[in-house]
Amino acid sequence: METIETKVAKALLSIKAVFFRPEEPFTWASGIKSPVYCDNRLILTAPEERITVETAIAETVKKEYPDCEVLMGTSTAGIAHAAIAAHLLGMPMGYVRSGAKDHGRQNQIEGRLEKGQKVVVIEDLISTGGSVIEVVNVLREAGAEVLGIVSIFTYGMQKGLDRLAAAEVKNVSLTNFDCIAKVAAEQGYIKPEDIERLIKFRNNPSDESWIH
User: Fold this and answer.
1) Does residue 104 surpass a pLDDT of 70?
2) Is the pLDDT of residue 105 over 70?
3) In a 3-state reduction of DSSP, which class is residue 192?
């Protein structure tokens, strides 16, 4: 039986939400050369793959966080995924802004959240983990009990793993860099010999020796 991480990996690759191009690297805003491009917003415009991903999020919440009472999406990419998964689960949802509004009630957390409620954060992508940990901290400061995170994809970078551990927050990703690289090679998106280069990038993004 196919695992969730393999099923989701195939879905993301098929719509180029995660797209490997080791021969023509992308350049990140930081200037780092990357063999991978990730845009999970593309899931929303692909109905079949969307069902696969959102069902997987809902099932993961039920399995990993059975006491969850509220889903909270990260702004902006996690909002739609949190909303759809919450609908499937019959559960309340809200989202956390990147900063408080400068008007109205000046909310940073949108949607009703009571102190003590058990929350799971829905995130589309984790690389270094900084942005999702900020969301966790905002929710904790508001009195929520953050059970953990469900993310669609994680690079598994050491910096991200260390930050999550330091913040004492659990993350469960539907799929990950290593799994997607393996499936990409099996399905002919990349050459099998590219996997070693991709893992080398993942282990140290600032070292560009993998390009050659």
Assistant:
1) no
2) no
3) coil
Instruction: Find the helix or strand (DSSP H, E) in which 191 lies.
Output: none
Q: Which amino acid is at 102?
A: D
Query: What are the helix (H) ranges across the chain?
Result: 4-14, 47-64, 77-89, 130-141, 158-166, 177-186, 194-203
Confidence category of residue 103, pLDDT binned at 50, 70, 90: very low
Q: What is the DSSP string of 140-153?
A: HHTT-EEEEEEEEE
Map residue 36 onto helix, strand or coil: strand
DSSP H/E element including 127: none
Q: Mean pLDDT over residues 174-194, rounded?
A: 96
CA distance 41 to 34: 19
**131 — alpha (psi -120 to 50), left (phi > 0) or beta?**
alpha
| Exposure letters 185-212 (e unless 16+ CB within 10 A, then b) | beeebbeeebbebbebbbeebeeeebee
- Distance of alpha carbon 72 from alpha carbon 79, whole angstroms: 8
Dig out the tokens for 57 from the structure: 């999020």
- Pull the structure tokens for residue 56: 């997987």
Residue with tokens 């191009």, as numbered in its chain: 21
Classify the C-alpha dihedral 182-60-63-1 as positive or negative: negative
Say if residues 139 and 121 touch (Cβ distance below 8 Å).
yes
38 closest CA partner among 54, 24, 52, 19: 19
